[in-house]
């Protein structure tokens, strides 16, 4: 049995108990000062009477304070909750379904602690107030309903309710109110009880409610009472979050600067000053900034760091913690590689560097010679010196107008490519197609994508231009934004590659306006070979002097060196599934995933188009997920949903509109227990008794005061 | 008529008369006329000394023979044969300045002293005056003759109450100067250490003086008619303060005061000291009657 108040605000009236004390102090301060000759007798008299008088005064003070206290209590209309229970004891059985909000926003921690835990406590309290003849069920607002899941039931067993309640955990799923209400209504419709009640315990943020309306339900249960218990205040809560990040300068080459931009938003009604934004790589803080954010403002916070040593690295953008920690962090991961070593073989070295076949090529691959950090380390060598080089030191070898190589070198080159190296041919006047076909297009040392045709000479006034480029090829990714740049190059001579369309596994990257391929590719072993049908210098084309030359070469070399792996690792936002992509040969193989909280998950690659893919959505918590893939170790970063970061609240009117024609009662957390537990008004209030006591005390006070 | 008589001796009515001497004369003459008894019989005089004339002396007392010799006015001073040399001790401490009915205890004491002095001088007695507070302020030795009345009245009119009450100290100080036995009249509220005061009064009694005590108290002191919560601060000693609810403390206070008065009364009776306690509202003729009764 407990004490509750119908007008708790009027309890402020208890402050009036200070009035008698204040009156005493004021009266004492305003006491007359009288000069009197016989004070000696007063002092003697005071010694005799003081004790009795003070006792009397204290008694009077206590009586007066008690009168005011009881009066304030009476105005607040107290009643014993036990009386309420007795009043409802005779009512017919009732079915109650409690929908407990377990969305991410309920993880908000204010001064009273986690809202989710408070919501659970309130649900538990509601269940404890039920009688033995009542039935109940507790359902989460967010749940994945499996096909083989046992049906929901209304139980009269308190252990079942409590068990249901205990299994409800916070989730990151998208709010599906339709499904949750459907489950609750289905249960209530099945109930035989004459009184039915649906209680929704939620923070009542607007998230997920935008599209909800009760008119979406065809059948509603009869005579259902709908209660909403709001956890937290009805006003908008403060929250800041990292919405997303963007990382530029891919691929990530060690020691090369990388710019990471975090998009931070203030989802509060007030301005946020000096918000601390940290960038961590691994566990080490590498950047920090302070930002000011107006209400609902989004701000880009840039960080510029140096890419760490070759390997997989994970990091996070971390905000100064607020009441919702989950959206204060954004995890990401990236793979960095060492700069690629390129061997450029000059087949037609000139008397000067400018006259050399590789002049433009070397310039294009080293545009940052002024900078210490570069993506590529090109090493030029003449065709005679190729035999001296250890090919395994390089990721890519470019043969520029090389007339021929020895069989040993050819064998080594073949081994280089099949073991994963990249080879790029450039044509030129030293390239004899017939000899090339004989030398490179042979079964034992196949290194040409396709047999070469005869050289084609265009009239000077009618050069060929590039008319088509494969927009999906990663080697041309840099040019996808401005493909017209490719059209400016004029080609006066090239080697025809007529069989490009007939030879299997040959991919045409660039084509002339006449349909002839300019650049073709074929995978040989683990490596790739590209053939560029024109020269690398200005002998056959002016393309080396065009803007597109540099990004094209960068793209080709990056592709051959497989720099694309030096990119941002997959990032998922709960609960959206993520697709882990592997190589085609990975199809059917297993990926082992270790979650941040120590669980292990297994997923299998499935063949899809030219790739192997493994969809994954079994997230536990946001953080770093370590993957063991056929190629080694990788990282998947998983972030909390941002759909629950807005703490604008639904007001009672909005709710009522959405839940027409049912009448709803919205109870605030502060007054929880006074409405939902109130099936009828309290049968017996204590105010009358208190007022009676006040009258009695006033009479006593009067007698005491007059005895003075 | 009774009402007129009453008014005649009412101290408040007397206060309207500006001259102290006149007030005393009205009181005494009025009282004596009521007694129907002549006070001017059975007294003889004896020449004592010459004194230079001062304005106010009676012309008839100028010794013309002496004028003939010295060409200056002298008056003859006579020593009246009397059994009485009275010294009036008037308390002029701060506590005597208290008044609740328009007339302070000091003013009442002055009227009483003046009336007594006038009465005694008219009978040819010697009258001296001592005004005191913490110490003796002024001592006028006993003299006779109505001319002395002027000096006494002047002293009474020029004295303002102030300071603490140290009656015993003043009595002791003057005791050495009163060599001849006579009458000691003490007019005071007696707010001093009763033991010390009584010891000194007993000393006078021991030297065969007659001692009369006129104990003056204000109406407020006797009735304590206050109603509101009040901080009572001692007039003579401001550090002595007491916050009291009058309704609560009245009974105990009055009991203490009564004990104080009773102690004085019993002690005086034991030592044959005439003790009279008056509120300042008491008509002055009653006080004088007490004196005359004692004299007879």
Any overview of this molecule?
The complex is a heterodimer of chains A (708) and B (296). In chain A, 23% of the residues lie in helices and 31% in strands. In chain A, the strands form nine sheets. An eight-stranded mixed beta sheet of chain A has the order 19-18-20-21-27-26-25-23. In chain A, helix 2 (39-75) packs antiparallel against helix 12 (687-706). Chain A is elongated, with a radius of gyration of 40 Å. Chain B contains eleven helices and ten strands. In chain B, strand 8 (230-234) and strand 9 form a beta hairpin. The longest helix of chain B is centred in the last third of the chain and has 25 residues, at 246-270. Chain A binds chain B through residues 27-28, 31-46, 48-49, 53, 708, and chain B through 94-95, 98, 189, 191, 218, 220-221, 226, 228-237, 240-245, 247-249, 252-253, 255-257, 260.
Segments of chain A where pLDDT lies below 50 for 5+ residues? none
Number of helical regions of chain B:
11
Low-pLDDT windows of residues of chain B: 1-8, 35-44
Mean pLDDT of chain B equals: 79
The N- to C-terminal Cα distance of chain A equals 42 Å
DSSP E strands of chain A, number: 36
Beta-strand content bin of chain A:
25-35%
CATH class of the largest domain in chain A: Alpha Beta
Radius of gyration of chain A: 40 Å
Report the sheet-strand fraction of chain B. 15-25%
- Using only C-alpha atoms, the radius of gyration of chain B works out to 21 Å
């Amino acid at each position: 049995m407990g004490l509750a108040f119908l007008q708790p605000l009027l309890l402020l009236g208890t402050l009036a108990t200070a009035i008698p004390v204040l009156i005493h102090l004021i009266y004492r301060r305003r006491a007359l000062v009288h000069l009197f000759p016989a004070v000696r007798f007063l002092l003697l008299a005071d010694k005799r009477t003081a004790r009795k008088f003070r006792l009397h005064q204290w008694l009077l003070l206590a009586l007066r304070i008690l009168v005011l206290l009881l009066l304030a209590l009476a105005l607040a209309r107290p009643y014993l909750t036990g009386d309420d229970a007795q009043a409802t004891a005779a009512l017919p059985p009732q079915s109650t379904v409690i929908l407990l909000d377990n969305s991410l926003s309920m993880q908000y921690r204010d001064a009273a602690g986690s809202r989710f835990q408070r919501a659970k406590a309130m649900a538990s309290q509601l269940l404890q107030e039920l009688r033995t003849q009542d039935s109940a069920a507790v359902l989460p607002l967010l749940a994945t309903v499996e096909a083989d899941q046992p049906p929901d039931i209304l139980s009269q067993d308190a252990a079942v309710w409590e068990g249901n309640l205990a299994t409800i955990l916070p989730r990151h799923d998208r709010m599906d109110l339709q499904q949750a209400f459907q489950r609750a209504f289905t249960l209530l419709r099945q109930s035989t009880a004459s009184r039915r009640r649906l209680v929704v315990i939620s923070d009542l943020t607007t998230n997920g409610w935008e599209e909800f309306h009760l008119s979406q339900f065809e059948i509603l249960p009869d005579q259902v009472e709908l209660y909403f218990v709001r956890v937290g205040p009805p006003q908008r809560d403060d929250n800041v979050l990292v919405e997303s990040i963007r990382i530029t300068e891919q691929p990530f080459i060690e020691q090369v600067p990388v710019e990471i931009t975090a998009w931070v938003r203030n989802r509060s009604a007030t301005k946020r000053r000096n918000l601390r934004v940290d960038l961590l790589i691994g566990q080490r803080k590498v950047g920090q900034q302070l930002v000011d954010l107006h209400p609902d403002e989004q701000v880009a916070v840039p960080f510029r760091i140096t890419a760490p040593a070759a390997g997989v690295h994970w990091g996070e953008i971390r905000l100064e913690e607020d009441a919702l920690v989950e959206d204060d962090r954004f995890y990401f991961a990236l793979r960095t590689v060492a700069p690629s070593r390129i061997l450029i073989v000059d087949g037609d070295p000139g008397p000067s560097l400018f006259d050399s076949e590789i002049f433009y090529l070397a310039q294009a691959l080293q545009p940052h010679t002024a900078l210490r950090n570069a993506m590529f380390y090109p090493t030029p060598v003449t065709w005679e010196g190729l035999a001296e080089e250890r090919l395994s030191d390089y990721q890519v070898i470019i043969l520029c107008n090389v007339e021929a190589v020895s069989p040993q070198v050819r064998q080594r080159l073949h081994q280089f490519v099949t073991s994963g190296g990249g080879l790029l041919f450039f044509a030129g006047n030293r390239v004899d197609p017939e000899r090339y076909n004989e030398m490179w297009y042979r079964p034992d040392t196949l290194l040409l994508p396709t047999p070469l045709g005869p050289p084609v000479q265009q009239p000077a006034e009618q050069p060929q231009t590039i008319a088509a480029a494969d927009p999906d090829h990663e080697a041309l990714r840099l040019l996808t934004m401005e493909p017209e740049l490719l059209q400016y190059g004029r080609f006066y001579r090239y080697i025809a590659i007529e069989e490009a369309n007939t030879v299997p596994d040959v991919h045409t990257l660039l084509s002339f306006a006449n349909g002839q391929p300019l650049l073709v590719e074929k995978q040989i072993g683990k490596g790739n070979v590209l053939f560029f049908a024109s020269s690398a210098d200005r002998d056959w084309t002016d393309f080396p002097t065009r803007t597109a030359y540099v990004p094209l070469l960068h793209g080709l070399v990056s592709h051959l060196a497989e720099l694309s792996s030096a990119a941002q690792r997959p990032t998922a936002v709960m609960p959206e599934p993520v697709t882990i992509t592997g190589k085609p040969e990975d199809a059917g193989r297993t990926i082992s995933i270790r979650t941040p909280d120590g669980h292990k998950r297994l997923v299998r690659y499935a063949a899809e188009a030219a790739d192997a893919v493994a969809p994954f959505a079994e997230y536990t918590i946001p953080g770093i997920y370590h993957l063991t893939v056929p190629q080694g170790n990788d990282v998947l970063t998983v972030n909390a949903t941002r759909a629950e970061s807005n703490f604008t609240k639904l007001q009672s009117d909005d709710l009522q509109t959405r839940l027409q024609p049912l009448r709803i009662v919205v109870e605030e957390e502060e007054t929880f227990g006074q409405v939902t537990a109130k099936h009828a008004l309290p049968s017996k209030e204590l105010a009358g008794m208190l007022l009676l006591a006040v009258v009695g005390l006033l009479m006593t006070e009067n007698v005491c005061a007059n005895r003075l | 008529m009774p009402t007129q008589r009453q008014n005649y001796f009412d101290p408040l009515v007397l206060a309207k008369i500006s001259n102290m001497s006149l007030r005393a004369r009205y009181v005494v003459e009025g009282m004596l006329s009521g007694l129907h008894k002549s006070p001017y019989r059975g007294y003889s005089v004896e020449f004592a000394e010459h004194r230079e004339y001062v304005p106010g002396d009676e012309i008839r007392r100028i010794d013309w023979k002496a004028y003939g010799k010295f060409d200056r006015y002298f008056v003859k001073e006579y020593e009246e044969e009397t059994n009485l040399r009275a010294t009036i001790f008037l308390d002029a401490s701060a506590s005597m300045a208290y008044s609740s009915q328009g007339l302070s205890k000091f003013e009442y004491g002055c009227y009483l002293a003046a009336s007594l002095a006038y009465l005694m001088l008219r009978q040819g007695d010697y009258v001296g005056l001592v005004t005191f507070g913490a110490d003796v302020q002024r001592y006028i030795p006993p003299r006779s003759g109505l001319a002395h009345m002027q000096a006494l009245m002047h002293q009474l009119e020029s004295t303002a109450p102030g300071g603490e009450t140290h009656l015993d100290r003043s009595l002791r100080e003057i005791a050495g100067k009163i060599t001849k036995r006579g009458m000691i009249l003490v007019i005071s509220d007696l707010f001093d250490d009763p033991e010390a005061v009584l010891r000194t009064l007993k000393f006078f009694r021991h030297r065969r003086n007659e001692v009369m005590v006129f104990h003056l108290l204000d109406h407020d002191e006797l009735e304590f008619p206050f109603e509101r919560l009040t901080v009572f601060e001692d007039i003579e000693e401001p550090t002595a303060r007491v916050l009291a609810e009058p309704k609560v403390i009245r009974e105990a206070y009055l009991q203490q005061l009564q004990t104080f008065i009773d102690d004085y009364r019993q002690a005086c009776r034991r030592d044959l000291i005439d003790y009279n306690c008056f509120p300042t509202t008491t008509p002055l003729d009653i006080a004088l009657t007490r004196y005359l009764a004692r004299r007879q």
